[in-house]
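Now for a typical sample entry:
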Amino acid sequence: EVQIVESGGGLVQAGGSLRLSCAASGFTFDDYAIGWFRQAPGKERESVAGISWNGGNTWLADSVKGRFTISRDNAKNTLYLQMNSLKPEDTAVYYCAANLDLSTMRNVRSWGQGTQVTVSS
């Protein structure tokens, strides 16, 4: 059974930092691209960052470039999202997404339950 569990969300002031983690099990983690999406209240879910199976290729949304970094540790079956210089508009539920098409950030096979990130102004 595939299990994807996000952690690390919380409340932070604008300009602060958070690191999200995504622990995965039930599939061969290092066979697949994996990424982060987010959904703010009243908005559609959007892609934030993605990373290839070996970490060699990454993709970041324009809105987070220069502030967010995606990485993975295949030995620990864990994905990370380091978020710096957070802005109120980064407030959303952040979802870990496994086994996706990195070139399009679509066709996600498995989703986590999400972790709330709230950035106060």
